[in-house]
Amino acid sequence: MEVDGLIGLEDVKIGMHYILTPDGLLYDAREYETDDEGLKSLIRKEVFKEAIDYRESPHIKLLKKLKLADNEPYTDAGHLTYLPRGALILDLLMDYALNVVRRLDALPVHTSIMYDLNIGPIKEHAKLFGQRMYKVKPAKREFILRYAACFGQFALLRRYYLSETDLPLKIFELADSYRYEQRGEIKGLARVRRFYMPDMHVIAKDLQEAMNEFINLYNVIIEEGAKFGWKYYSLYNITLDFLKDYFDFIKGLVKIDGKPVLLYIVEPNIYYWVINIEFHYIDSLGKPLETATVQIDIGNSKRFNIVYHSRDGSKKYPIIIHTAIHGSIERFMFEFLEEASKMQKNGLKPMLPVWLSPVQVRVIPVDKRHHKYSLNIVDKLESEGFRVDFDDRDITLSRKIKDAESEWVPYIVVIGDKEVREDILTVRVRNKGLVELEISDFIKMLNDSIKDFPKRPLYFSRYVSRRPIFA
Predict the structure, then answer these.
(1) Can you give the pLDDT at residue 1?
(2) What is the pTM of this model?
């Protein structure tokens, strides 16, 4: 019986959207009223099919302004070229994604990007993507470029001798992936044809073990978003039978989320999964974008002949969890750039987290006589693992500071007579102002701001004067 949008579980229908609240109540999504703008945005997109145009997204302008990435006219649309600054950020995000899954005891692998479309399980799995596949036809054979790490990891797992005591087993790959998106859908980092997917699969002995692992991963995804100050809005694509048979499990997930989620009900046995959750990030224009995902797969172990040996000696097909804890690396970068845009809207100077800033510290001498002292500071900071450069150009001090500000350098160190004489540093801290510090205290400040996030060196010369200008 439906009352003001409230319905019973027995009235749920295939092909419909519903809202499930943390207290276990179900509502028709078309009639659900909320003050949460993020949830409203997700409902407009998924339920009412409001078109989302990411061409207006501020991150696209930032890619060019900060000289991070650009389109390459010599290749296909949706294949970005990353300049040194963008390549550095991309690699740091890959390092971070790897660190997260290694803490979960995942085993990193590298597999092929190309698979034979005439092989049974490849052909069956590929039907789900249809025209979104890139095809390669050397001689008389037909191959496809992978659109995730599934093919390679499943092909590898079918050759493993897995015992029940090996499970749950986690396997991970930063998969160079390809999806032939429609040209009109290609938008900056939000939708590309070539991307990097930090793809992890968890092999579980049965559905109960899979659900336990699923809960753990759900918590990790929520915690990862919260770590960066992001609130995700969840879409649960779920089969009708799984919803009804495991409704308590679903309600437990929503309690972890702590806010209402959107459900979309699908017919059983159409897809290889029984539940596929998409976590949506809300950008600076209030638009939702799918990022992290996690799903329970009940079909591919049999399709690819992945088995494990149970304690009684019999062979069994495991349950497989698919997850990308941060979504694609490109969308991970998208989120940080959109957060910077939100800062600007709130009256702050836009910036990236210090660990992601291509240049973390810029040392600026007031005059040439300060070069030696300044370079000594550069050497000390560099030896501590920080990305620091030196503005040795023969231009005014104000222009040097302005350029550093426009590049979002979080710490600008100006060295003049006073700093040399008193052996101190005058530091412009982005969004906080000027401070005077001894170098040991500044090193502590930098370490506190970077914490245990990954470190990489500069991807370009430490001397600002020695960098080519990208046209």
Answers:
(1) 32
(2) 0.96
